[in-house]
C-alpha cells in the first residue's frame, strides 16, 4: 500500500509555472551551462536537461541558442551598467567615485553566477551581435566615467573618454586576475589598490589642464 501511494505521488505532474518564472528558470540553467562549457559546445538539449524542461518548452521561450545567449548577455550588461551608474551617482566626491567604479567591476566579476564570463570572456565575440554589444558596453561605461573626469580635469571629451576607458579596462583586468588567484589579496584591499592607482593618476590632471572656456 505504501509503495502504491509513493508511486502515485511520484507520477503527479510538476506544477505548471507562470511563463515569466519558467523563462527565468531557463535563463538560470542556460547561464550555468554556457559559463561552464562555452557557447560552441553547449547544445539546446543540454540547456533543456539542466532546466528540467522539454525542448518544445525551451523553444517556446527562445527560438534558438543565439537568442538565449544574447538574452543572458543583455542581463549581464544591464547589471554592470546599473552598478557603475549607481557608484558614480551615489556621491559627489570624485575619489569615492573612482573607488566605486572599480568596485563595480570587482562586484560583477565576483558574482557566483559567472555572468562576467559572457560579457568579458565570450567565445562568441566574432558574432556581430555579441561584438556590437561588447563594444557598446565598453563605450557606455567609459562615457559615464568620462563625464566625471572631464568636469574635474578640464580635459576634452575625447581625452576624458580615453582615460576613462583605460581606467575601467584596468579595473576589469585586475578584477579577473584577482578572481583567478584567490587567497593572495582580499577583495577590499584589491579594490583599494586599483582605485588608488587610478585616482593618483587622474587627480594630477587639474594642475596641468585647467578648465577651458
CATH-defined fold name of the largest domain:
Tetracycline Repressor, domain 2
- How much of the sequence lies in strands comes to under 5%
Sheet with the most strands? none
Shape: elongated
The radius of gyration computed from the alpha-carbon positions, rounded to a whole number of angstroms, is 22 Å
* Number of helices, where a helix is a run of at least 4 consecutive DSSP H or I residues: 11
What can be said about this structure in brief?
The chain has 213 residues and is an all-alpha fold. It has helices at 2-11, 19-37, 44-51, 55-61, 65-89, 94-109, 115-120, 128-153, 157-180, 187-202, 205-208. The longest helix is centred in the middle third of the chain and has 26 residues, at 128-153.
Summary keywords:
single chain; 213 residues; mainly alpha; Arc Repressor Mutant, subunit A; Tetracycline Repressor, domain 2; 2 domains; 11 helices
Explain how this protein is built.
There is one protein chain. The protein is mainly alpha-helical. It folds into two domains: 15-63, Homeodomain-like (Arc Repressor Mutant, subunit A); 71-207, Tetracycline Repressor, domain 2 (Orthogonal Bundle), CATH 1.10.357.10. It is 76% helix and 0% strand. It is built from eleven helices and no strands. The protein has helices at 2-11, 19-37, 44-51, 55-61, 65-89, 94-109, 115-120, 128-153, 157-180, 187-202, 205-208. Helix 2 (19-37) crosses helix 3 (44-51), helix 2 packs across helix 5 and helix 6 crosses helix 10. The chain is elongated.
